[in-house]
Amino acid sequence: MKEIEALFTPETLEELLPRERVESFFEAFYFGEEPAYDLGLGFGGLRDRFLRLELLLKARPGKCLACNLTWGLPEVLARHPMLDLAGMIERLQEKLPFRIESWELGPTEERSPELHVIPLLIRLAK
Predict the structure, then answer these.
(1) Which of 33, 36, 67, 70 could share a disulfide with 63, CB 3.0–4.6 Å?
(2) Given CA atoms 73, 74, 78, 83 in this order, what sign does their dihedral have?
(3) Rg (Cα) of the chain, in Å, rounded?
């Protein structure tokens, strides 16, 4: 399991969810308007057969990251073709020594007024 944890360097996380893909998503979803947050990918840990990645929504300076803005995002992010989370999971599978059985986005977690997290829960095969 330590070998899996070691995979999730900042470079690997950026490779899985590149800045260009996030910007394309923002353009398509917000029609060129500036969003209230930046979107990134973080490593949330590994427990039993579950790998937790996190979609990090960080408030932009001078913007409000209101709950009503982020609570509906898991459903949107899971299906939006510009963000392509299914493709990201396929790229992740190429790096892992275990097969991915399934994945899902959990509900938005408010860590602070400036940071909301959407967990990406990945079930690994035995």
Answers:
(1) 36
(2) positive
(3) 14
Contact predicate 120/52, CB 8 Å = yes
Q: What is the DSSP letter of 98?
A: S
Please check whether residue 50 is in contact with residue 121, taking contact to mean a CB–CB distance below 8 angstroms.
Answer: yes
Query: pTM, whole model, 2 decimals?
Result: 0.90
Q: Could you tell me the residue range of the domain that residue 98 belongs to?
A: 2-124
* Percentage helix, strand, coil for the chain under 3-state DSSP, each rounded to 5: 35, 35, 30
- How far is the C-alpha of 72 from the C-alpha of 20, rounded, in Å? 23
Total number of domains constituting the chain:
1
Reported as a single tens digit per residue, the pLDDT across 80-102 is 998 999 999 999 999 998 899 99
